[in-house]
Design goal:
two-stranded antiparallel sheet; 6 strands; globular; disordered C terminus; transmembrane helix; TMEM115/Pdh1/Rbl19; membrane
């Protein structure tokens, strides 16, 4: 194990070298809090405890700090890998400031939703364990957010070839795995809650609220809520999601988004199309280019250079085909009485 640590450290430093100060600062804070956890109970003062977040305590700072608190080595490794992946794949698309906003939105949402869920569980069971013994912390919530963002940007990329797993299926597969581990009592409930609410909050933010050059949100079809589920369940999930969205629009908790597209005409006419988005067009163009490149590569691999013997045979056959009217030298001295197969112009009948 120790001999792999220098190699892992080298790869980690190389991954951080190309990231901004935001990713480096968050990674350094996670490492520092992990080191402090050996001597201090960092989870008590920096993790979200539902009973302390609610009045009259109002430990609201834990909403910002709980995502960086790790008490186990594997949790720290997962958090650092998540931050590095976000810095390499998402930061070039969004920018450092937007990545920091996304980190804050996901972690605050995870803390609030998890605290509310445990409070409702306490109301139903009257067990104080759900208020003061549960501590929500770690980078699993942000991991769920990063996976949702990668589904949005590169959902058709292949993660595993055998069996074939695409990026768009990874968020729900990991949620299913954590649910099975929870049923087997191998992980605690706060792990599943953090990841699940990270998925939900990141999708809501990216779907409706994230600002970019094209406006706000991403209403493309490939990023609908139903696409997170298997195809057999997508019609039912889509119906329920549309009903919930309609209710939220009516109570003004969510606004109806109109997608507008400038067709490049000299006039200021703008066309609104339901169910389409410029990201869909760009995504289909990239898929078409990828398929074309793969097809051209297969054609080049299958084609072979012709041999010299084939060239000589083709040349001889072409020479014979091009000179059918030349007389055969072997028959040059034969009797003139032999009929000729050629028709001369004198033998041809006169044109009427």
């Amino acid at each position: 194990m120790r001999r792999y640590l220098p190699v892992a450290r080298q790869h980690f430093l190389a991954a951080l070298a190309g990231t901004s100060v935001v990713v480096k600062s968050l990674s350094a804070a996670a490492v520092l809090l992990y080191l402090l956890s050996f001597g201090l109970d960092t989870a008590y003062g920096l993790a979200v405890t539902p009973g302390y977040l609610l009045p009259p305590n109002f430990w609201v700072w834990t909403l910002l700090t709980h995502g960086l608190v790790e008490e186990r080595a594997w949790g720290l490794a997962a958090s650092l890998a998540t931050l590095g992946t976000a810095g390499r794949l998402l930061e070039p698309l969004w920018g450092a400031l937007e990545l920091l906003v996304f980190f804050a939105v996901v972690n605050i949402s995870v803390g609030l939703l998890a605290a509310l869920a445990y409070f409702l569980t306490y109301v139903a069971s009257f067990h104080l364990h759900y208020l003061f013994a549960v501590r929500i912390h770690g980078g699993l919530g942000f991991l769920g957010g990063v996976l949702v963002a990668l589904k949005q940007t590169m959902g058709d990329s292949t993660v595993l070839k055998v069996p074939q797993v695409r990026m768009k299926a990874v968020p729900m597969l990991l949620l299913l795995l954590l649910a099975l581990l929870r049923l087997a009592a191998l992980v605690e409930s706060n792990v599943l809650a953090s990841y699940g609410f990270g998925l939900l909050s990141s999708w809501v933010y990216l779907r409706f609220y994230q600002r970019h050059s094209r406006g706000r949100g991403d209403m493309s079809d490939h990023f609908a809520f139903a696409t997170f589920f298997p195809e057999i369940l997508q019609p039912v999930v889509g119906l329920v999601a549309n009903l919930v969205h309609s209710v939220l629009v009516k109570v003004r908790l969510c606004r109806k988004t109109v997608k507008r597209y400038d067709v490049g005409a000299p006039s200021s006419i703008t066309i609104s199309l339901p169910g389409t988005d410029p990201q869909d067009a760009e995504r289909r163009r990239q898929l078409a280019l990828k398929a074309l490149n793969e097809r051209l590569k297969r054609v080049e691999d299958q084609s072979a250079w012709p041999s010299m013997e084939d060239d000589e045979e083709e040349a001889a056959a072409a020479a014979k085909a091009d000179s059918p009217l030349l007389p055969d030298p072997s028959t040059a001295g034969k009797s003139p009485g032999q009929e000729s197969n050629l028709i001369s112009f004198q033998d041809a009948p006169a044109q009427l």
